[in-house]
Give the backbone structure.
Amino acid sequence: MPAPAQILIVEDKDSLRTMLRHALERQGHAVLEAADQPAAMRLLQQALPAVVLSDLRLPEGDGFGVLRAAKEIDADIPVIVMTAYGSIEDAVAAMKEGAMDFLAKPIDPDHLLLLVSRALEQRRIVTENLLMKEELAVRRGAPQLVGEDPSLRKVFASMQRAAATDTTVLLEGESGTGKELFARSLHALSPRTDQPFVAINCAAIPETLLETELFGHEKGAFTGAVARKPGKFEVAHRGTLFLDEIGDLPLSLQAKILRALEEKRFERVGGTASVQVDVRLVAATNKGLRAAVAARRFREDLYFRLSVFPITVPPLRERPGDIPTLARFFVDRFCRDLKKKPLVLSPAALEHLQKYRWPGNVRELQNCIERAVILADGDTILPRHLNLSFAEPPVDEAVSPWSQIDLSGSLAEVTRRVTAEVERRKIEEILREAGNNKGRAAELLQVSYKTLLVKLKEHGIE
């Protein structure tokens, strides 16, 4: 049996709230209760109810605040407002702000149940439409996004709404959360799906080459430019351009990117003629762009132009319920790709997966499962196949790790010595994880490609 629909009642009068709860529970609904706007907002964040039923007059806040909070979390959530008979104008104002309907007090239980039934039907239709769009997108080649956590479903819903428009989308989230997969899905769900999807990692290309990669160059623009070359903006004409790690975009290029977005035209390097393009931009960052703006490392006008529709992709540790689902998905995929017989994850292996913090997010989980599938020699993946490093042995208290550190010299000398050693070890570890791919290592370390090259030279790492 499906779980009962959750209805959030926001009403400060205990007697009326109790009457509404009993009426709804008799129809098989689950009821959440709040007496004011702050309590309602907490429940909206925690529970994601199917329908909200709110009084417009509350002791703290009001029904308009509840309505706006609900719509900010999920624009499709049906909200029914309750108001005194003499305040119908307020109810009409609420409907203009997105409320589905209103109930005049005193409340007629039959009318209440009818409106709730309509609201749930509306909710069901919206959900089915989203699922149909997702299924169609997968059939048309969109990447399959796996997960059922409420935070991820909110991202899916936001992505569906953004896909139908040409609005610039900014995907924010830690490295490895799958921002490029979301960008590709956004493109596949959009009217531009039959046109090119072009991706470029702003952190993986040296600053001196990035401008020509983005905007192309004319013949003779510089030594070696023996022919005209179109840039990513031109290649993506009528399609979608994905700028990954846009926080690493040099200031010198930010003004040209802004102009290309606003005017839909630019000049190639070494050229004077304007090139007209029609491109939908999706950007991604694992850095706080607001902080970069405050530090004058990122243009404020470009930030506002990019963040018209921001979507934050949650890290894997914040949706632990998705870890088993993702792990089984990757096991099935790699068994097929590697032509191995089907494998299952042992209960102990699943427990290890869920205890781990996954600093590298979904990408790290994917790599972990691929390695485990290769190592597994029976029909079951065991903890030893996962090679997770979270269960480190306890440090012998008799031997302090500080006794192994050279503390001679001044404070500045010790700090410099220890920092250099930590940097070297961290870079070597990430290079191993990235298979010695410097672009990917820079991404995992959250530094620019140029910074990584400087550090490699400093520490004598080949």
About this structure: The chain has a mean pLDDT of 84. The chain has four domains: 6-127, 150-312, 319-386, 401-459.
